[in-house]
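yo

u said u wanted the structure for the complex thing, so here. seqs first:
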Amino acid sequence: MAARRVPLVLLACGSFNPITNQHMRLFELARDHMHSTGQYQVVGGIVSPVSDSYGKQGLVLAKHRVAMAELALQSSNWVTVDEWESQQPDWTETVVTMRYHYRRILKEYERSVGMHNNSNLSPQLKLLCGADFLDTFKIPGLWRDDHVEELVGHFGLVCVSRGELQPERAVHESDLLSYRRHNIFHVREWVKNETSATEVRRALRRGLSVKYLLPDSVIEYIHQHNLYTEDSEMRNKSAVLRPLVKQAQEP
Amino acid sequence: MEGHSITKVVLLACGSFNPITNMHMRMFELARDHLEDTGQYKVVRGIISPVGDAYKKKGLIEACHRLEMTRLATESSDWVMVDSWESLQPEWVETAKVVRHHYEELLASEQNIDDVDTIKYAKKRRIEENHHKDRDDLQLMLLCGADVLESFGIPNMWKQEDIAEIVGRHGLVCITRSNSDPHKFIHQSDLLWKYRKNIHIVREWVTNDISATHVRRSLRRGQSVRYLLADSVIHYIKEHGLYSSESEQKNADVVLAPLQRYTGASSS
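structre next:
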């Protein structure tokens, strides 16, 4: 008798400025990994672009970032883009976004399997991220402690790294993360792929080709709307990242 | 008529393409950007020439499949195309011969376009320098990774005169990563150093290390290779059940064609 698997949805939060093949690879790698543990069945993936009020330098309008993600994910049968986070009036803490999606997933799940069927395992939502994400927990003022605890303790992380040991080290060096290490899944990507949105924007500014780094449809969209120029990169240049401001104000 | 004239360039990539990946396609894009950035070149075409089955590399699947996958991968490109000549030859063909073949074809097609033009500067120079049929305004360059450049140093892999022909008469565009040092390699070879002006090193600042070996490994293990190769190529692979443990064992006990051909021959 096959062991029952926990239905799992992966949520990736980020700028997606723009979305690249590497972002989409994260989902593929994470799904393969979680399946191979024997405990999970990945049933969905969500790309949640951050709102404009995040204030990151070079961030183009959310409506473009969402549109590009939609184009990129057209050919995917399990990952979709969600614009709830991008439409909130203020920047939304990752944990709040996760709570929103988890409630939604749970409701949908209960509706589809029926309330009488108790034998099914409840679905889970985990945050999908790259290795550098774990290091951001160290940045003062960027994360609330109780949020980190909820994120890692209650939800869980699926962290994709490029073959280096940095993520394990980041966990080791943090008491909180160490305590919750059973809920942090490390996925190693053996293909060294440094394609980043930052590099893509750089190439675009310089009129260089980005073909095969992102889907053709996204490249076309970028050219059509003339996104990613020297000017766009200067946006929010002297602004402070919204989380730092918002969380500094809290008691 | 002032200033320099722009040389038209055709890039030729030889290799197994077993299977073709996004990294292979990126090489063309990077090479074109680099050459055109110098202001001296205009890259007009890219040619992918998959090696014939007689190369006998371990894990090399049939040329007909590799050709079709390459064709699918190049469908979305308006300047890079696949060519089957090399793969259709009964024996393994030295890269220099492939270069020669494509260069002749190029000249022949240009000749048809480029009719009678007695005052053309290039034609005058042709006659003067006795470069039979060669043109200054049109070049074929071999596009490759740093590993190919470094393979020039592997005993019995290349004939010296072939290397000389490729870098001397044509040109080499070599895509390299931060961990290799092609300049040093060129410096340490008298032959390469002599033709260093024809060797263009393109630094890939953003490492994109999608090796076909890794792709085949992932496929064997049932892991996703989505976004590493074109969707149409992945679909083709699944449809035809390519790349299994069996296919990876092909030619496992056979010697690579160039090594077979040159080993034992007197050193050139």
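Residues 18 and 174 of chain A are 31 Å apart (CA to CA). Residues 6-248 of chain A form a domain with the Rossmann fold fold (CATH 3.40.50.620).
cya
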